[in-house]
Recover the amino acids of this structure.
């Protein structure tokens, strides 16, 4: 459990992450800086019935709650920033609960640092060792990966760190389905 000071610090960081990443993703969308804009355009074409929903439709369905392109752009940027925050928060609470690290600031720092680390298959660089931690643009420019992060992390946590009850099995099933449709 967090004490009062830690709760205020965590709340401040929550607000900062969401606001900063909302601004970053809004900038990406306004300046067509990554494939995020292509995903947004795809969502707009779906809402105009020019394209069909892909199998991983959830992100597009949520973005299409906006009735015009400007609102869709804001929903998209907000979804991306909240997803980044949820990845941070889930990492924080998994580390707090499942490790022997007790220092609040260490857990906070590690959780924040893990926002910038992403493993990719890299056989040629690492001499046939499948995964090697690399900083890659996919972490920040692929909307599907960004939106999936908190759901995949939740599924991982439920599968490996929880006891199996009927309630947990239902949660795992729901998370499994969400991971598929994202």
């Amino acid at each position: 459990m967090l004490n009062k000071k830690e709760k205020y610090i965590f709340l401040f960081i929550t607000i900062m992450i969401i606001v900063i990443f909302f601004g970053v993703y809004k900038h990406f969308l306004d300046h067509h800086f990554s494939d995020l804009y292509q995903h947004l355009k795809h969502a707009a074409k779906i809402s105009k019935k020019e394209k069909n929903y892909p199998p991983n439709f959830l992100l597009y369905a949520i973005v299409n709650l906006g009735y015009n392109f400007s609102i869709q752009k804001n929903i998209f940027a907000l979804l991306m920033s909240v997803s980044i925050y949820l990845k941070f928060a889930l990492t924080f609470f998994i580390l707090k609960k499942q490790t022997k690290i007790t220092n609040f600031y260490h857990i906070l720092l590690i959780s924040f640092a893990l926002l910038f680390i992403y493993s990719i298959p890299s056989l040629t660089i690492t001499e046939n060792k499948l995964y090697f931690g690399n900083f890659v643009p996919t972490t920040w420019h692929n909307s599907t990966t960004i939106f999936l992060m908190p759901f995949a992390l939740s599924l991982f946590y439920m599968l490996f760190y929880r006891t199996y009850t009927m309630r947990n099995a239902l949660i795992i099933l729901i998370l499994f389905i969400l991971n598929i449709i994202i």
In short: DSSP finds eight helices and two strands in the chain.
